[in-house]
Amino acid sequence: MNQPHEHLPHESAAAQAVMEAVDLAQSYEVSRGLMAKSATVKAVAGISFRLAPRSTLAIVGESGSGKSTLARMLTMIERPGSGSLRLDDVDVAEADARTLRRYRGEVQMVFQNPYGSLNPRQTVGKAIEEPLLVNTTLSATERRERALDMMKRVGLRPEHHGRYPHMFSGGQRQRIAIARALVLRPKILVLDEPVSALDVSVRAQVLNLLVELQESLGVAYVFVSHDLGVVRHMADEVLVMYLGRAVEHGPREAIFEAPKHPYTRALLSATPVADPEAKKDRIVLEGELPSPFNPPKGCPFNPRCPLVMDRCRVEMPPLEPKGSQLVACWAAQDTPGPTPMRRAADA
Ligand SMILES: Nc1ncnc2c1ncn2[C@@H]1O[C@H](COP(=O)(O)OP(=O)(O)OP(=O)(O)O)[C@@H](O)[C@H]1O
């Protein structure tokens, strides 16, 4: 484990957390054909964070950076390979079946594709009531009342109760999935790319709905996205992942106003901005995410980094406080502003 238990510089030691992850990691053995030896992929290589109640932590990175694997561990769809995961001071990483059942009621997930998560032969009402049927002793009337209440909160009408998922648009279907995930009143919702499959025109509506629901229900979100632009207005904290590791983690303002890791800056460059001045500083990310079977030596970002130095090719930078965020970069400076993006060769 090469990442220390991270605490943001602005956090007090006693800060309350509804969820706390320490050094969560997951590796997979992957067969490479009949003749070849199997290989190990480190999908997540030590992620730590504390999630404050009613807050949103965004997990951002390219496809293959380990976001979905992390989301599956946070919801205990998959047990962590190592590390601890605490909900209200109970470590669930090694929990027995009974504790796990309770945990699953408290931490729910919304997937990218609401088609896949909804049974086409089940009415919307039954889909939303199902978690209540499985996890509570409520009567049929009470379950129906709860489902109708949650449908109203997500912007669905009572007559939608008896209809089937195929009768709804993508945005409405995601509202149904959100209602189903919230009907047990979980403390935490893990949202894995919840608007990526939706038309651009309905994305903002669903994001606004999530903000409203957080305020009215007091739920905390872990919001997984490949797009920093999507989380810009709703994240309280942002954790940027690269090849299974956290490369930068901090409050939203620090990540958007003074990003320090060159990878964060490249991701920001790829998001549309209203201010054309900001484009002057555009960083185009060259090359692809390296194979997780054979990660580069030293800093995993070094083959694509405009600031690469000799040290980066041999030594992994630790995730450490720089300004008001945590950054894993030998070139990032401990100053309030962004890391200057000149090539090392120009220095
Ligand atoms: N069950 C699995 N078996 C083998 N390898 C896996 C498994 N799940 C994920 N991986 C590998 O782990 C790495 C991280 O994958 P993951 O899906 O978590 O990334 P991601 O950032 O969520 O990407 P995407 O947005 O494409 O889902 C990838 O190299 C992937 O191939």
TrEMBL record:
It comes from the Bacteria. It holds the Pfam family ABC_tran. GO terms for biological process: peptide transport; transmembrane transport. Keywords: ATP-binding, Nucleotide-binding, Transport. InterPro entries: AAA+_ATPase, ABC_transp_ATP-bind, ABC_transporter-like_ATP-bd, ABC_transporter-like_CS, Oligopep_ABC_C, P-loop_NTPase. Residues 25-268 form the ABC transporter domain. It is a peripheral membrane protein. PROSITE patterns: ABC_TRANSPORTER_1, ABC_TRANSPORTER_2. GO terms for molecular function: ATP binding; ATP hydrolysis activity. It is found in: Cell inner membrane. One of its GO terms (cellular component) is plasma membrane. Belongs to the ABC transporter superfamily. This is Oligopeptide/dipeptide ABC transporter, ATPase subunit. It comes from Ancylobacter novellus (strain ATCC 8093 / DSM 506 / JCM 20403 / CCM 1077 / IAM 12100 / NBRC 12443 / NCIMB 10456).
